[in-house]
Each structure stands twice: as C-alpha cells, then as structure tokens.
Amino acid sequence: MDQAASIVKEHHDAIINAIKSVVQRDWRILIVDDVSKKIIESSVKEDDILNVNIANIQEIEEPRDENSGMDAIYILSPRPHIVECLILDLAKGRYRNSTVLWTGILGRELRARLASAPQKIDSRPLLVDFFPRESHLVSFKDPYSFPILYNPSCEAVAMPHLDALAQKIAAVCITLGEYPKIRFFAPRNSEYRASALCGRLAALVQDELDAYKQFKGDFPPQTTRPQGYLLIADRSMDLMAPLVHEFTYQAMAHDLLPIKEGDKVTFHMTVNEGTPEAEEKDMELSDKDKVWVENRHRHMKDTIEKLMSDFQNFIKQNPNFTNQNQDTTSLNAIRDMLAGLPQFQEMKEAYSLHLTMAQESMNIFQRRKLPDVASVEQTLATGLDEDYKKPKDILEQMVRLLDDEAITWVERLRLIAIYVLYRDGVIIDDIDRLLNHAALQPAEKVKITNLQHLGARPTRKLKEERKPHPPLFPRTQVKNPADEDNFLSRFEPAVKHMLEDLFSNCLDPAIFPFTRPPTDGGAADAAMTTGGSLRSAAPRWASANRRQVENRQRVIVFMAGGATYSEARICYEESEKRNRDIYLVTSHMLTPQLYLRQLEDLSMDRRRLGLPMDRPQPQVPEHFYAKPKPPPQPVQQPPAAAPPGAGSVHPPTQAMGAMTMNSGTASPHAGGSGARPPVPPAGKTEKPVKEKKKRNLFGLKKS
C-alpha cells in the first residue's frame, strides 16, 4: 500500500498547520492539557512543534509563572474543568494575547460558560479528537464504549455517548477533508435493544457534518477524487470475528503474546540476550518499524520465511561480519547470530524483535494444539468442513478438544461460544454440560449468554423450533483450498463481504440504507466500479503527472463496540485490491481475551463498571485559586562607616532587590525569526536555550 495515504500524516498536518496559522512569525508558548497532550503526541513529534516558533510547551493544570510579555496558543480538550482553568488563566492576564484551539466540539453549556467570561476569547475548532494508530487505522482508545452501548443498565448514558462518538467520527472525516455518503447497518433482527444503534449514530454523524459544512463554507475542499463513503457498523454484525483464531502475524501476536496497549503498543523482550550488553526493553510496534509494516498482515508461516530470507540476504551482502559456517536455517540460530552484530544496532533490534515474537507465537501454536482447535473453529464459523460440505460429528470433535489438557481454558471457552453461535442457540442445560466437561467455572456461562445483548440467540427452550436467520452476505460455494494454511483460514470477517458488495454495487440497501439517498446514484455507482475518479476515462497522458494516490476514493468503516485485527487486515487488503484508501475507525481494538472479559460486563450493574462518567470528575487545581506570594522585602542593612573621601554614596540595596535572574536579554535562536524570546521562569536554575529541544515531548519540568 502507498504509505503516502496516511491518517497519521493527515492528523499531524492538521495540528501543525493550525499552530502555524496562529503563530505566523511570532514566538508563542503552547499550553496543553492531559488529554490534548496525548492526542498531539499520537502523531506529532516535539521538534515539529518547536520548529514552528513555539518557545515552550506547558500543561494548563500545572503551576506556571506569569509571562505577560509573550503570546500563547492553547490546544485544549473541551471539558468543564479545562474551560474553567482557561477562564482563570485569562483573568490573571498570564499571557499577552491568547488563541484557543479545541480538539473537539464545545457543548452548549461550555460555549455559554465561555461567552459569560469577562475576557474576549479567540476560540477556534481544531477537531482532531482521535488517535491515528496506523496509516489506515484509527482508535478512540475507549474500551468503555462496549458496555455503554450494549449493557441494558447503561441506557441512560448511551445517547450522550453516541453524541460523543458522532463528533469523533466527524472529526476523522473533517481531518481527511471528506463529506461522505453515509450508509449504516440495519439488522433484520430488530428484537435486541442495540439493533437501532447504527441508525442513530449515522443520523448524528450526518448532523455533525452538515453543521460543519454550514459553519465552514469551503468544506469539503475541492479535489479530483470521487466522494467518499462512511459505512457505520457495530459488533453485532459479526460475533465470530473476535473469537476465531487468525494466523496472520499481527492478529496472532496480539492474540497469543503479552503485547501492552498504552500510549504506545509495545512488546517486552531482552535485547542482546546472552551477551554482556543484555537488557530488558519495551519495543514499540508502529508504522515507524518497516519490518512490522511489511509483515504484519502476512500469514505467520510466510512472515517467518520472509524474516529468515531477509536475514540470509543480509549475510550474503555482509560476509565480513558473519561466520559463513553458521546455521541460518532456524529462527534460534539466526537470533544467536544477531546478538553478535553490534555494528547494525537498529537492524539487529528490529529483526530480534520480530524473530522473537514469531518464535514465541509458533511455540504457543504447537504447545496449545492450535491447528486442531482452528480446524474445528473454521468448520463451526463457516458452517462447512474442509471439503465445503455440511459437517458431520462436529460436536464429537469439539468435545475431544475440551478433554485435551493441552487446550487452555480460553481456547475451550472460545470453542463453546463459537459452537453456541453455530447452533443458533442451545438449551441452557447443554451450556452447563459443556462448561462442566471443559472443567470451566459455572460463572463463565454469563459470557456466552450475554451474546444475546449483541443480537445472538445463545439459548433456546427444549423442543423450540426456530427459523434460522438468512445469511447476512450469501456466498456461493468456494473451491477446495490448495493447502493446509488456507483451510485453517476459511472464515472471512463480515467486513470483507460488506466492502466487496459495496464495490460491486450490490450492498443491500434494506440492510445498509443511506442516511440521505444519493441524488447522483448512477454517477456514484460508476465511481465505485471504476476504482477511482470519474475522470479516469480521460486519455492516459492527461493524468500521467498526477500522483495516483491523490485520486483514490476513500471509504471510512466505523465499527462500534470494538474492531479486530483481522478486520484491520481486510481494510488494508481491500485498499490494495480496489485502488481505494479504506480506513478502519473504532472505539478500541479487541483481542479475544478482552472480548470475553467485556461480554461478562454486559450483565453487570452499571455501578460496578467504573465508567468514566460515574467517577469523580476532574476539578480545577487548587493552585489556580491561591493568592500570589508577595515579593520578598529588601533587607535593610545598617549604614557602614564611609571610608575617607567616599562622600555620601549609598549601596544600591533597593535596585538589587528588584532584579531577577531573567533581567538579561535572550540569546538569539538559530532556527527562528530573529531573537528567541525569554523562556518563562520555572523557579529553578535556567538551562541554556539550546537545550530546549532535548526535553521529552511535553515533559517539561514543573515549576
């Protein structure tokens, strides 16, 4: 995929260009809060900010000295206590002039509060309230979205949450410069509470985008690409995808390995293992890692072959640094060789990371007998065996696995959940029997029965006859796959079928209606099938000098309730196949373990969930209300006897008492326009200006 098309870059450029539009040729101080800081850090480096005439970066919640001689730019999140901090800041006249950029939309109450402030506030929308995780993957980092949307006890907060989701989705569209056609998932089964979720959310997003267009007349910007699409679906569209084992590198690693999800995605490992330089380190998994980007969507077997092939090519190109007699045909041998190559530290760390992750994943794959587990899973998830026929004795096959001590409790629970979905429900006693046979605690049953809140029918009465739901995406029989790797990957997430039907103009309008029926239906259909701009019919020479990526149509897929790494992979693969840019946007990324834990939350009382809105809300820090300390009084010294001939000259005690450490002028700054302004005093010995860029992003010392 052409990495030039990247939501990370679009997010970065939106922030930097907004700062530039305010700063222009002046030096300013940038003030952020704890939330806006993380949003900025997700795509922008510290140097990028300091290089656009930002002299210093401070946090609004922390104590700061006044600097009435400098202008300030605030990038803040729209929250009540942050608005109060801003008003108090301006009332104190802490800075000369101030401009405020809001990462999200200010609610009516917050707008009224700002309007009531005595100071005139230059306030502008920035609308970057999301976290670009990969070039085509966006997360809101909000796992609480799942229980809020699907737990019946959270109904009172569901609508405000949908409002917040709509604003974030609109922010993604606005950052991309897209005013898309919106379609949403409207399930045939409307019996469960959340069945109207996507329709309500789609209407709210449409309202947000319409309001922004009215506010900003030149939106969307002119472009040669066709109008994009926004597809809004939710977890109920595909209950199998978070349960089924996927054996592509990224999905498998997140399923089996202890990868940490924080401000960064990291894997803890020992670097230079077996040498005196050995150290434990958190290795980041991001788009900055070319080896990761190149291999993350490959099947694990192909990933290992590629890693070994690349390393063997390196040895051929650098014979002076290796022993030609060493074994290079096994992962362990290559890892040992890497430890002895100090000359290639960056390359060594990258390959050590991925060889370690691949090796550990494959060890678990064999130890837990995942090929046997996956074979049964694929039959249950697709409803067909390896020969694409109706399966026989599938229950017996599953029960044998539930008896196997090598199969962990998580795999056993996943198998039972998949079986219940495959059967479209079983009697409650059968769930108890399966759990007992698998030696699982009876409390695990709630994770299966709670699938009802996502539209499944996990239980049924004895002798109850039930008409099966028609398949969401009917498919003809597929030819028998050629190898074992493929028959362990027969299941395809519903997102793949949804995108295929969209691009072939056969996405059912009854199940995926528009929020606003298109007025140019024929033209829109032509754009979908041609794979690019309607101008593509022009002579080839007419667009020879135009970057193809600039004309690629964009499709934004929002998955409410969390998305899987298999669904992320599908969006990348379909982007490449269809010559589009498909972005997956979601509240949070799901692993099978997290999915099972969150299913348990769906029957829990809201008071036990610890939702962010049910916790004590942040307050304005007390130091905002503290009276400023009076300046120290000059110490009066008794007059000393004057030496002969000295006259009546008095020591300049008063003048010296009024002097400060910052009385001198600032040093010139090579990268700015003119001399660098004085940095606000921090109450400690001031470092030279040239060291400012060496500090951690936003990690400036507190005053």
TrEMBL record:
Organism of origin: Neurospora hispaniola
Task: List compositional bias (Basic residues) regions by residue number.
Answer: 690-703
Give the superkingdom in one word.
Eukaryota
> What GO biological process terms does the UniProt entry carry, in alphabetical order?
vesicle-mediated transport
What the entry lists under InterPro entries is as follows:
Sec-1-like_dom1 (IPR043154), Sec-1-like_dom3a (IPR043127), Sec1-like (IPR001619), Sec1-like_dom2 (IPR027482), Sec1-like_sf (IPR036045)
Q: What PANTHER family does the record point to?
A: VESICLE PROTEIN SORTING-ASSOCIATED
Which named protein is this?
Sec1-like protein
- Compositional bias segments (type: Low complexity): 643-652
The record, for Pfam families, names:
Sec1
> So what family is this one in?
Belongs to the STXBP/unc-18/SEC1 family.
Chain intervals with Pro residues compositional bias: 628-642
Region of interest (Disordered), ranges: 458-479, 609-703
